[in-house]
Amino acid sequence: MNITWTRPDLGGALVHFYGNYEDRNTRQIPQYRERTALFTEELQNGNVSLRLSDVNTRDEGEYKCRVDSEFWKHDVSFDLKVEVIGERPVISVESYDSNSEQFSLLCESKGWRPRPDLQWLNSKGENQTAGDPEIQSDAELFTVKRSFTVHKNDIDTFYCRATLGEQTKQEEIRPKVFYALADFDKAACLSDDPIKTRILDEVKVTAYDYVVTIHIWEIGKELIKKFLIIPSRSIQTGQDHWHIIKQA
């Protein structure tokens, strides 16, 4: 019995050949070297499936399997689609406008194929009105970005979710980050020059205070500063506030 796997979309290039009870792959195209195998213990049960290891995007395409035996011949063709699950989204607070009291958020997720659906959601799981997705392609993988603007009075826990089929990756941003940035924007350490701030990360130090790393872009230079942020609650309003105590 002979079993031949080929790629019709590559001119019938040989993917794998089995004949006279052994693999014979001298004519196999280079991109499949040492990556293909049959389930030889299952051949007697009619299983002529191909095992393909280290799958990559070049493996996507049309495949044909042909079986020739003493008693019958048969072939079947199908298309193989390769999906790549990308990275967990990264949320950036790009800026806070103290005049409009609005935060500009950006969500970015890299390394997908095909491109995923990227959505902003609130704590109830409701889709939020956001800007159109920005798509970038590099080496057949996709990076997706999507911006979202929220007013200070509408602060909530927001989620950015990347979805491809049944695969989902998600990141969240919590209210305390907004308060920290709003207070930071008012801090005396900032110059009067146009700036752009973004919280890069947040490390919990104790049950009551946090160290927040804030990325600052100023004209002609770039700085990274760390500040100790401590929460307090207003007696008048009952609302939580965040105060910068010192530069860490």
Say how many strands there are. 18
Mean pLDDT equals: 79
- Contiguous low-pLDDT stretches (5 residues minimum) are 186-211, 216-220, 229-248
Helix content: under 10%
Largest sheet, described in full? 5 strands, antiparallel
Count helical runs. 1
In spatial order, strands of the major sheet run 3-2-1-6-7
The best one-word shape is: rod-shaped
Provide the gyration radius in Å: 28 Å
Keywords:
single chain, 248 residues, mainly beta, five-stranded antiparallel sheet, four-stranded antiparallel sheet, 1 helix, 18 strands, 5% helix, rod-shaped
Helix and strand topology:
Elements: E1 2-7, E2 13-19, E3 22-23, E4 36-38, E5 50-52, E6 61-68, E7 73-80, E8 90-97, E9 102-112, E10 117-121, E11 134-138, E12 141-151, E13 158-164, E14 167-173, H1 175-186, E15 196-204, E16 210-218, E17 221-233, E18 240-247
Antiparallel strand pairs: 1-2, 1-6, 2-3, 4-5, 6-7, 8-9, 9-12, 10-13, 11-12, 13-14, 15-16, 16-17, 17-18
Note down, in words, how this protein is organized.
The chain is built from one helix and 18 strands. By secondary structure, it is mainly β. Strands 3-2-1-6-7 form a five-stranded antiparallel beta sheet, with no helix packed on it. β8 (90-97) and β9 form a beta hairpin. The longest helix is centred in the last third of the chain and has 12 residues, at 175-186.
Short description:
This protein is mainly beta and 248 residues long. It has one helix spanning 175-186, and strands at residues 2-7, 13-19, 22-23, 36-38, 50-52, 61-68, 73-80, 90-97, 102-112, 117-121, 134-138, 141-151, 158-164, 167-173, 196-204, 210-218, 221-233, 240-247.
